[in-house]
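Hey, I was hoping to borrow your eyes for a little while. I'm sending you its amino acid sequence along with the backbone structure tokens. Take your time with it, there's no hurry, and the full record follows here.
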Amino acid sequence: MPVPSSEHTNQHYASFATTSRLVACLTSESLVPAYFVPSKEDVILGLCLLLRPNSVKEGDIPTTVTLDDVLAVVPLRGLPIIDNTQMARFNGIACPRIDLVDGLDMLPHIYSIDIEAKPSSNSVTEQTKKTLTTVLQTQSKFELVDSYDAVQMWDRLATDLNVNGKLKEQIGQELGSSILFQKYTYDNPKELPGLQSGTIAWEQSVVEGHATHPMHKARKSFPPMPALYPGSYDLDHPRVRLVGIPRGSATVRGEYEELSKGLIDALLAAGGGNVQELRNKYNNHVFIAIHELQLPNVEQKFDDLVIFPAQHCVPVEALASLRSVARPDILPGLSVKLCLGVKISSALRTVTPFTTYFGPGFSYDVVPKLTYDHDILVVERELGTVSYAIEDSDISKHCSSVVREAIEYSPEYKDDLFIPCGALVEKIQRPDTDQTNLLNVWDLDTEEKRVNFLTSYVDLSLRSFLPPCLENGVAFEAHGQNTLARFDRKTGELKGFVIRDFGGVKVHRPTLLKSTGCELDVMPDSCVVADTLDEVAKLLYHTLFHCQYQRLIRVLGLHYNGVGWEIVRNRMSELIPKDHVMWPMFMAHDKVPGKCLVRMKIDELYRDYIYRPVPNMINFKPQEVGI
């Protein structure tokens, strides 16, 4: 068991983890101007200088910086993605615009300016202040205050952006929740997983989660659910309760009742009665397992359900998403996606009727006809769903469930180890380290080893996810939570990948129809429908290249030298024909559409996306600051 870091260290790093992600989003989404200030100091490479949004008109290049213009100051250890064509000159110093900055570019300090604070003796703070002074237009004395947190930064930014009071408070609460739960994770380290660990241990090894979302650790509940605080409920080991939906009020798709039988029988038996007698008694009901935390929502919103007594409960294991659960001894080869009315990162984690309708049809009719190598990629189908039949989807989404394949819990794959790809790049259960699970378990202690691992990873993942995109117009949501890497448990060799969860796929209907003969069966206004192939490409770019590759390449130490991206670029050039319509989408542009996580929060969007141009990392090459 790793030794927990100190209370002070954990609080500092919890604040940094959330706030650095907020800085990354504000920069890439162009919500604030951000500039790279080069440094001549030895501890820092330079600064990420975030200016307040009203300090300069959009499209203009500022010529001066005053104390009041500064939103935040972040010392850097690595060069962010810069735009030398947007060069500001502050006091004669060339400061290029920052297009993208990652938390791994930053030293673990984020500063605000205070004219009354006490001076700091920390070397990073001193060098940051010295560098900042070279570009400021001021004679006033000031100090830098460390641990400027996301809630404070958001409060100031939201005021500048005129965000309405209720939304401002709500987003602030979610950022605060993210910091609180991040600290709790640091305070309670788990056993480090290895090649002999089970998939569930890897699913629950997540330390920080989404690499760029500032609500990456938020767990925000809403009435009638009780408030969630760190330690108030064991989200990794929840219990499910038994509920019966009258058949006339249930929409069942696929083989839901047959596949859920093992779990439902266990719930019926847990109450001490005869299982068959209870099934006969409630023959006019469809049984559904409900996450224990979700019961207050179910009780409030549905008045004709049978909610069985508390003893009808079964402990389960939460997967990385927290709302999907497994019990391999009860449901071998399957997992269950549950409703959970808690905001985790971007959204309330319920299961919409769009999802429960789409999954089985896509699984049975479309997936078997998609173009992909079945030896490399396994697509885990959603074989059965149930939802409460009511027209209002905002109510229906609180009482629904999906049963899907989970080969990682199937006895026939016992010699393979399946790991959520996001868990590979997680830190080893403490904040103050660059060591990750991947480097620790696979002993990637030389650049040659790291290059070989990345080459195999890129080759197999591109051969998994590019063909459906290129041939069928289908993009899977291949980020690190939905994608599992499949390894030989004895050798650690990467064998392929598994993709799960169809709620966020994108499908271009004409391309699918032409290539497979399949019509896409969706509810009206389903967000899986892509009007253009560009939409398909940008989903795959965001999930696979931005969310997966960028983190992997950075933790392998192959980002700044460009080696990692050259591996990606070369393999893409081999797999995409130059005359294919998707060649320019991936390969020809310096900028691609980037998903705007904070702008979407401000506009209160989830199923609809906002995109802004971001650097196309496929074409990334080592940079220098222009003069």
Notes: The chain has three domains: 7-161, 199-408, 414-619.
